[in-house]
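User: what does the whole thing look like in 3D?
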Amino acid sequence: MSDTIIEVSGLHKAFGKLQVLKGIDMSVRRGEVVCIIGPSGSGKSTLLRCVNLLEEPNSGTVLVNGFEMTDPDVDIDKARRMIGMVFQGFNLFGHLSVLDNLTIAQRKVLKRDAAEATAIARENLRKVGLEEKASSMPSQLSGGQQQRAAIARALSMQPAVMLFDEPTSALDPELVGDVLGVMRQLADEGMTMLVVTHEMQFAREVADKVLFMDGGVVVEEGPPAQVIGDPRHERTQTFLHRVLNPVHVTD
Amino acid sequence: MAMSRRQRARAFRGVQYGVLVLAVVLLAVFADWGTIRDAFFNLDAASTQFPEILSTALVNTIIYTALGFALGLGLGLILALMKLSSVGPYRWLATIYIEFFRGIPALLVFIALGYGVPLAFGIRFDIYSTAAIALGLVGSAYIAETLRAGIQAVPPGQIEAARSLGMSQARTTVTVVIPQAFRIILPPLTNELILLTKDSSLIYLLGLVRDEYELAKFGREGLNATGSLTPILLAGLCYLIITVPLGYLSRYLERRTGRKVDEGLKVTA
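Assistant: Here's the predicted 3D structure for the full assembly of 520 residues, as structure tokens:
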């Protein structure tokens, strides 16, 4: 088993004429928490979505957990089972209860029986603090609860790596803490995580490595103390200055 | 002379009530109430209609409609999936079918099935099969378009979530897309059912024996037998027994799922 679980090389992605990713090289090691930060439009979400091939890259390779995602002959459904994904908009299945949201893929994809799937689902609901919401419908939950349920849904597949696409951006400020708390707990348990986020404090405290992206390239990467605490590049400095002192920004 | 806003509103309302009162007075004075009562509310003619109008005609109308709707729903789902297929010829075939059966009168389909097919191919279906096929062919074209719109209204995030969990495209369609699409299209689908209920009256063209009469044919036979319009009125009322509750059901579902969809959009925004 190799130490590197995600390996991205030479990744290019364009939407029509718009070049979004202009040659990305990056890797994530097993057990590592990597945060991607950067201004909107920098391509960080697109990069994340290329990792589980929700977006198809124009060129370059993506290797995840031994699967070459960019190979047209890869069994993409099998590869994705091992890659948990958490979306900005939660995307819980609106027609299913919270518990069914957690069991449906276990049963239909992993072919677990109902008892086993339910047991795993309840275990993960307990982990995110939503045990008593198992029979609720997603629309009855707050945004923060929905996002925690979505995390529990991804965890129920027992993935090798978790991808988070701005998981707290759609939440009211007072609900952000619950979700970040669950993510921090996951990191502490050794889960491999690739996180696109605007939460600088989370990146600073939890990440092993931070990537700063701008204009479709990785401008700077390194430990959080360096990239967030003492950035080398001017673009990183400008971005962090704006994010950390939003009230005092002068153009 | 300038009127205030309040004066203008009052004058406008006054004119409307005036026209209404005039119309009622004219009707009361000039209409021949005796003849109208004999034509539409003839109790002797009405009594000859019961109980068959309910036990035979109403029941048959419901059966024909239900069979046609069931076939139309199955065929419509296949057509909708064809129309959304990535394979060009499937899309073209579905488009041609839908445009054809949506564009021609249902009457032609009934004539073709009732007289054309037996003449050309020597195949004769029983009346229930013919009704189901004819109504199904016509209904499926409308239902397919409704279903397609519903499937496309399922938020893309739902599909991405399913695919991210390792579901195949087919599995995603069956497990996530179709159940959610049905919730979205339940109100318009109820309207298709109302249209199909009325179209079932065309079955009279196929030549029915008395046990097979549906409401329109039954009313017409009643008209011939009694010389009174009362059976026609009764048949019309029987259609309303079916369609009015369906209309309310449709509006109820619209309100309910409308709220759900709003919440759903908030969830998946």
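In plain terms: Residues 261-269 of chain B have pLDDT under 50 and may be disordered. DSSP finds eleven helices and no strands in chain B.
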